[in-house]
Specification:
heterodimer; A: alpha+beta; Immunoglobulin-like; five-stranded mixed β-sheet; 49% helix; elongated; B: mainly alpha; Cytochrome C Oxidase, Chain A; two-stranded antiparallel sheet; 17 helices; 1% strand
Chain lengths: 384, 598
Amino acid sequence: MTSLLVIIVLVLLAIALWQLTKIFDLTQVGASSDNSQVANDKDNNLQGYLMFGFLAFLYVFTIYGLLKWGNLPLHTPASAHGGQVDNLMNITWVLIFIVQAVTQVLLYWFAFKYKGKKDQKALYFADNNKLEAIWSIIPAVVLAGLILYGLYAWTNIMFIDEDEDTVVVEVYAQQFKWTARIAGEDNVLGKANVRYIEGVNTLGVDLSDPNAQDDIVVSELHIPKGKKIHFKFRSQDVLHSAYMPHFRAQMNCVPGMVTEFAFTPIYTTSEYRELPEMVEKVAHINELRAKRSTELIAKGESGLDPYTFDYLLLCNKICGASHYNMQMKIVVDTPEDYKKWLAQQTTLVNEVKASLEQPAEGESAAPAEAKENDTVAAATVAMK
Amino acid sequence: MSAEGHDHAHDHEHEHHHKETFITKYIFSIDHKMIAKQYLITGIIMGIIGIVMSLLFRMQLAWPEESFKIFNILLGDKFAPDGVMANDVYLALVTIHGTIMVFFVLTAGLSGTFSNLLIPLQIGARDMASGFMNMISYWLFFLSAVVMIISLFVESGPASAGWTIYPPLSALPQAIPGSGTGMTLWLVSMAIFIASSLMGSLNYIVTVINLRTKGMSMTRLPLTIWTFFVTAIIGVLSFPVLLSAALLLIFDRSFGTSFFLSDIYIAGEVLHYQGGSPVLFEHLFWFLGHPEVYIVILPAMGLVSEIMATNSRKPIFGYRAMIMSVLAIAFLSTIVWGHHMFISGMNPFLGSVFTFTTLLIAIPSAVKAFNWITTLWKGNLQMNPAMLFSIGMVSTFITGGLTGIILGDSTLDINVHDTYFVIAHFHLVMGISALYGMFAGIYHWFPKMYGRMLNKNLGYVHFWVTAVCAYGVFFPMHFIGLAGLPRRYYTNTNFPLFDDLQNVNVLITTFALVGGAFQLVFLYNFFSSIFYGKKAEQNPWRSTTLEWTTPVEHIHGNWPGEIPEVHRWAYDYSNPEHEEDFVPQTVPMKPGESVLHH
């Protein structure tokens, strides 16, 4: 109903405006015989001032935006390379703001200053090689700097040193769910292909591969702080993109191939929650949620839970109807907590065994013990 | 070369005496002026559909999952039961909005209209090199538009995999319903569209090369013709690659090949595909997709250059630099497609190469922007609506272009890729800018098309509201993009993290609705002025170019007598050696007059 009202209001507004211009036109008829629909001095004057007004609008709107929404963008990067990304971003922003401020002023100022008058003649100024050289060379030099810095950072981030000591993790995408597989004790992921998918083995891990014996499959990913995490991405159906905005990390998940990205988390989840910016952001969000909640409860619906921050992995490549709800929680632990968490997980092999043995009850004790040994060992290897 | 135009004149001498029926005049016309109008009207109709779609999904984003009667009215009981938009329908709207705006409005509607109208008129030709092929080109375009519209009404819904139709999503109906019949129709429509576009482009190229009138050397051409010419060349080079991608996708979908598909497990079963790669599709798609944004923006740049010079009463600043930058942009546009794929899983080394080539485009773009600004300097600006839209175009092109420095830099793209930051960037730099270019062109050449003037006051209202709303819609999007909000999300309510962005979304949608509503002012102005506008003079803007030497009433063959000869470049405005502030290209050089550009 409200929408209909809004639309009616808009249509009426449009009609009112059209009527106004009609009246304006009619009053012009008597005043002057100029009905050529070509701009005259009066138009030039008014439109020139409006150009100046629009320049003011642009500036005010920009400043308003920076003040009002300036705290929305992602702040403090949670990964080691993130600082480099944000640094390059900030340098680029400074340049952009300078160029934007100068060019828009010139454009609209000239539009205002040189608004046409009847007996005025424009300057016949068709060419100036010096000027054109200046505005080709300056951008070229500035861009060369940006390109060099950008490529340096890109190379650092994207080329993963195979010899480096990392924790290998597979992130597995399917419509509309993320799953992770931790490489375990040997830090090598077992081979996998969708053709092995069966029952509990939803990731299609080749269970006969020796490297797969200690792999652990989880739906909430924990990673240790301060250690480089080497992500390998797979998808079983369509393209997905694993987007971890707080870590300044993103990579597409492509069916039929394995893609990679690596980063080192530098804040645990609880440390990141306590950053002043984050405290402020969460408080603001909870304020909004509380307000919305009371509205919902008044309508007889259930309220909203208050929000606590968690790192997220989101899908950022259109993947189907529920694309907007494909997420996985990532928890960054201290190395000790990570060890503890890992110790509680069951290896995939044991999960599969358990699922096969389920009908025959009473035999569950032995695998459970084995699992514990396995995972503790895995944790020590992973942490060394 | 240019002498040929002269012989051509005699061939057509008698053609305008032929009796024309309604059908040959208005429907299957081979007159370029009529075909231009057909392109324009079809483009406007498609534009209305595309913009209304965007307003619908903007409403969903601002007030997620709320019930709107208008959804139910426009989308029907199946797609919006009880007035709540279904989530796959949201994706369908996004997809078709993108497709329609990029291809049907800003490629065919813009380039088709103005290339057809202006190439023969501004180079001094009786018509296109092949009028018949031109007619076929339009009717194929019309057919492709009809097929695209039909796809909206199929049972399983229209294509919903995004306008980039990346497989496997676009290849598997199991993945999303829109990838069934809807996608088949989308591909058929695009194949027809590409055929149309190629015929048009070949015609433009041949016409510009062969049919220039006597004295019209390449360096006397108005910049409009240069941009149409170069646009046609990139179109001919890149559209066939999209056609090949579409054909291979049709093979994968219907004949079981595996060009783009491999190792897929969906809906509980393993599919037979083996060995293909979606990344190959991305390469093929963007090999057209990136030049495509220049196919969209270059004609707008040409129109704006021409309109700015005319209304500043000044020569365009740096005519040759403008040509060189158009050529540089065109060349670079074909070797930067990989910047859409930094995080696609391709080798990071390729990412480095594409970062390098991409950022180079900023140089010719900067040259163009500064040259436009200098054109205004010390001019005698005639603030016609076309001029306002031209100034607006330069403004949005700069604002949108600058954020390209962020997106084109692979390191920075990692975190803003596919977020609302991208939406903000490309809508400003190619969407709004190209639309402004198109509006500028319509306001400027309407008298040439219909022999009547558009109402200037309605034009002013149209411009100012649109200008404020365009920034109102797209400027805030930068912030929510930097906050990490992905594009193509039906709603953000599943992420409390994004709750603080909701107010911004409401503001954006409000601006979009107001801006959208005020396009009615333009539509009213356009359609009423066709019939009731003030009769135009022959050269209302006091312009130098050849199209204004033709009679107001259209005749087949354009000039009643001989085709005029050209004696000077297209930008002799306020030449101090002449009394008038413009010297038409047909005026012979005075003895001893200094020659600036041939």
